[in-house]
Amino acid sequence: RGRTHPILRSDGRGAVTVKARIGVVVLALIACMAVAVAVSDAGTRSGPLVTLIGDSVADRMEHNPAALNRLNRDFTLNLQTQGCRRLATQSCTIVGEPAPPANVVTLAKRLGPRLGRIVVVATGYNDDPYRFDRDLRKVMRTLDAEGVKRVVWLTLREAKSAYVLSNADIEAES
Fold this sequence. Notes:
With about 170 residues, this protein is an alpha/beta fold. The chain is globular and about 40 Å long. It has a five-stranded parallel β-sheet with strand order 1-5-4-2-3. The chain has six helices and five strands; from the N terminus they run E-H-E-H-H-E-H-E-H-E-H. The protein has helices at about 20-35, 55-60, 65-75, 105-110, 130-145, 160-174, and strands at about 5-10, 50-55, 75-80, 120, 150-155.
């Protein structure tokens, strides 16, 4: 359909601190600003709506008010992050939580038009790398059906060989 799916690699070779991971998520969102003008919501907000759907790595954004304030100057950030989130299969259970979080597909359907036209996907660490490509395609079909025009996928830090496989699927989608 002519859509582009930018990829931001976050798989630095070596130790990556939580602060560095948050930085990668912030960079991905700033990258969205480059495409935001083309798909803006006609000035109805302070900037175009950008939804970030993530797992525990992206969930750390909530604890960085400076980053959130900076991002919300240029667009309206809809932060949808929760630990153990998976792409299309049932998410894992977080100790102390009553139920697992909604997976990306379920959450996207639930949010519908409230997703906006730009979505950043920052999840995958909890997914099965041998079905990652199928689940990724299911996410893309769902986002397309919900009217999303731009999808930015963050790759996984390749601390495990399974993440190398998942990253290959993300890169093949672009």
